[in-house]
Each structure stands twice: as C-alpha cells, then as structure tokens.
C-alpha cells in the first residue's frame, strides 16, 4: 500500500514539471480584494482590509472526509445538505459550516478561524458532531463533544497543493497507553485545468501515524447493520484517500454554481465511492 501511495505522490510532484502551461488556475478571491492592474493603484491599500462576506449551500451525494464517508457505514449514497457562512476582514475570516445527512442521520457543525495570504492558508477549527438523538442530546458547551484541529495549506505553481492537519484537543484522541495521539492527516493534490471547461484534481492522502480520532477499520456487522470498525483501528502509517475530482464553476449574475464529480478509493477500508456535489455561493 505504501508503494501505491508513493506512486501517486510521485505522479503529483512530477506533473507540474512535464505538463503544458495553460492559462493560470482561477483562484477563489474575495471580490472586495480582487483588482486588476488598472484599478489597484488608488484603492489597493483600502480594499486589502475591507470587510467581506460569503454564503453558500451544497447538496452532496455523500459527506466524504479524508477518504471516509461520515456515516461510517461504507455506503456510497447518503445525501447531505451543507450550508455555510463566511465573515471576513482582509485576510482573516470566520466560517460557520454545517452538515445534515439524510440516511445516516449524521449531523455536524464546524467553526473555522482562518488566514489566507497568496498561496498560504492556515486554519484552526472546532467540530461538534453526532448522529440521531445523540446529536441533540449533547450539550454544545460540553468540551468532550468538541475537537480542535489546526491545518496548513501551501500551493506551489498554482497547481501543487500540500495540506497538513493535526488534532490537538479531543476526548477520544488517545492511544491505548493513555497518551495523546495528536491524530494527523496529510494530503497532496495536483490540479490540472482544461481551459475554461473544467479542472481535474488528483489527490493522495494518508495518516502519518495512528489516528484514533478519525481512522476506522473495515466494515463489521453491529446490531444487524454494517458500520466501520473503530474498535480495531489501523496502526501506524495508512493511506486513506486516493481521489480524482472534476470541478467546474458556473456564473449566473453574482451567484457561483460549483459542480463537482469525483471518485474516491480508501485502501485502508477497501471501499470505493462516487461523489456528486452541486450548490451555490454568493
């Protein structure tokens, strides 16, 4: 499995060196900060620290995260509603994001504090989640119902993206000896644009060491239903996410309509997924 991951990683790294250089990848930019050479001179300094906001909504065929479906059943289809709201000031922002899955009754509410500057992105986020009645029964102010994770992303050549995430606070993020596991995940993604038609991203992601907070083993039967096995979690280095994603954004007046079609294989659980996502943002 490490050979598979190494091959995909090598592919991601080598593509920028051999691929033709089409038009630059369009970046998602705060409209209040976006200015051409013709207009930047007078307003660049003022706009750089302007307030801005963005709202959006996605409908996904499944809620996929790090190569796992968040219903943890291994099912390919579990429709999820995902609203979001972002409030920003210059390069800093606060993002509120939610998920409500239909078939698994899984719910989640995330709060992000982020910083974006050119090719660098840093976030600290908190997750509050649960399934069915357990989600409503939890107290939002119960610290054991939350986790705190820090991430850093850097993009080279506007194509090659490196991502690292480490969990610093979670009640269940401990090894059998009781020590904190600092569950982590790293990912390499390479984006190849095809003119104005679509973007294709190749992704390879893995756990660098044992991650009890988020990793699970293959499916097992519990009370007559399949679920992923958290009692026998994978140890050490494990590849969990090999994905191919096609995306295109449609613009209608001031509304952006992103459409995403993807395929994911999780070698750790030996599960395959097809993903379709569409939504809007303004």
Walk me through the structure.
By secondary structure, this protein is mainly beta. It has a single domain (2-23, 53-281), classed as Beta Barrel (Porin). Helices cover 11% and strands 53% of the residues. The protein has 3 helices and 16 strands. It has helices at residues 2-18, 40-47, 133-137; strands at residues 51-60, 64-65, 68-69, 80-89, 92-101, 106-117, 120-131, 146-156, 160-170, 184-194, 198-207, 217-222, 225-229, 238-252, 255-266, 271-281. A 12-stranded antiparallel barrel has the order 1-4-5-6-7-8-9-10-11-14-15-16. Strands 2-3 form a two-stranded antiparallel ribbon. Strands 12-13 form a two-stranded antiparallel sheet. The longest helix is centred in the N-terminal third of the chain and has 17 residues, at 2-18.
Summarize the structure.
The protein is built from three helices and 16 strands. The protein has 282 residues and is mostly beta strands.
